[in-house]
Predict the structure.
Amino acid sequence: MITVAEHALPGLRDRLLWHEVRTPADIADATGAEGGAVPFPALAAAGGRLLHPSNSTRVPGLFTVGGWAHPGGGLPHAGMSGALVAGLIVEGPDFRGSR
Ligand SMILES: Cc1cc2nc3c(=O)[nH]c(=O)nc-3n(C[C@H](O)[C@H](O)[C@H](O)COP(=O)(O)OP(=O)(O)OC[C@H]3O[C@@H](n4cnc5c(N)ncnc54)[C@H](O)[C@@H]3O)c2cc1C
């Protein structure tokens, strides 16, 4: 990465005071996240290909919650998915968020 970044910023390597290499295996060791995977946020582009699956599933009463479900990764989004599912459970399948 440093070599590639040096194309944009010549001499970068000599200017670094320190750096640390953290692989997905390091993340897995430190956090317990399977495969070192960090859930990515949902991005509204590319024809919806970067969105996470919806919170409701084909199985009635089964919902998905957390960083790998809609609206995506990150603590705020993981919490938001819980709020969305609570709404789906309490108000039913037409729930579209707070109004
Ligand atoms: C290194 C790292 C840095 C991050 N930094 C940020 C950041 O700065 N800001 C940010 O917003 N997000 C950050 N995230 C992302 C954020 O932590 C996750 O997106 C979020 O925690 C996902 O929430 P979750 O509830 O889906 O999963 P988790 O937080 O992983 O929670 C899953 C829970 O389920 C429990 N569990 C698993 N299996 C079972 C089982 N069989 N029975 C009972 N319990 C079980 C686990 O112990 C865990 O407590 C970071 C993630 C990582 C790995």
Notes: DSSP finds four helices and no strands in the chain. The radius of gyration is 19 Å. Helices lie at 2-8, 12-15, 24-31, 75-91. The chain has a mean pLDDT of 91.
